[in-house]
Amino acid sequence: MSMLRVEDLGVSISTISPLSGVSFDLERGEIIGIVGESGSGKSLTAMSVMGLLPLIGGQVDHGKIEFDGIELTGISENEYRKLRGGRIGLITQNPMTSLDPLKKIGPQVDDVSRLHLDHDKSQAKARTIELLGDLRIPEPASIYHLYPHQMSGGMKQRIVIAMALAADPDLLIADEPTTALDVTVQAQIIRLLGDLVKQRNLSLVLITHDMSVVAQTCDKVMVMYAGTAIERGRVQDIFKSPRHPYTKALIGCIPHGLSKTVRLKGIEGTVPGVAQYPAGCRFHPRCGLAEDICKETVPAFDTAGSRAAACHFALGTAQ
Question: Is residue 157 part of a domain?
Fold first, then answer.
């Protein structure tokens, strides 16, 4: 049984449909990278899994979200609260929006285990200090008593990770967890997340715009564009021979080496807004392979082995 299975997910907010046709599965101990440019629907997918769509006036229109055999789209908010922060942990991209600036960081982490594991005050504190040590935070007993403003950005992000781990979750969702950090600290946090998955046998959904992070960290990848999934499969297969032109273009944007004579590739144009989603394949206005059928007909997923791509010419791009 998959730890997380999403099938043909569609989301509406008021009269618009910003997300559709999203499907993927994740086993225990695996990491899946959800990748794409800003506006591709990555964070909306995470909000759907976490049951947070009502906060933005959204709802799941169709499809399934199944967590460890539990159909999430049919449960109540009270049932969701028991899972959210408990069996499903969330790591946000900006720790300053997750941490209370007026409260010491130790008690903030304590709150999670006290709520979801029924720990008393002393049990929660002991667990928090142990977690801080596991996350390679020096002198965790002293750090416990600091306020967020007394810590670096990388250290604050580790505190957010500790909060996500405090209730022993089975699934972690990390939404651009290194965006606000410098490059060196980004690498440390990504390595830390990979180690946590192995050590604790967790499942991790890693949302990112960085294909190099996916290549280094993930087992599977789902590529999104303009509110829909366009390719998914095992990382090594997709990086070796991408079947969708957009995936191929994203991989082409990864810098290789330090040569001053090699220019980085880019993708002309921008991701359309929800109101401007084109008919047919949503990538066709930016695609050099597009023909009339691409402008008129939505491509179905074409499956080859462990990979699937939604492109009318997918087989022709697997070179």
Answer: no
- The answer to whether residues 230 and 22 touch, using CB atoms and an 8 Å cutoff, is no
Distance of alpha carbon 91 from its chain centroid, rounded? Answer: 9
Give the integer Cα–Cα distance in Å for 271 and 80. Answer: 32
Residue 303: give the domain boundaries: 4-87+218-256+264-317
In a domain? residue 36? yes
pLDDT at residue 33, as a whole number: 97
How many Cα atoms are found within 13 Å in the side-chain-facing hemisphere of 232?
18
Rounded to whole angstroms, the Cα distance separating 41 from 23 reads 13
What's the pLDDT tens digit per position in 208-249?
Answer: 988 999 999 999 999 999 999 999 999 999 999 999 999 999
With CA atoms as reference, report the closest residue to 172 among 95, 113, 92, 88.
88
CATH number of the domain encompassing residue 233: 3.40.50.300
Predicted local confidence at residue 257, as pLDDT: 59
Backbone angles phi, psi at 60, to 5 degrees: -80, 120
How is residue 84 annotated by DSSP?
A: B
Could you tell me the sign of the dihedral formed by the alpha carbons of 210, 211, 216, 221, in that order?
A: positive
Overall number of domains in the chain? 1
Which stretch of 24-38, 138-152, 260-274 has the lowest confidence by average pLDDT?
260-274
**Using 50, 70 and 90 to split pLDDT, how confident is the model at 252?**
confident
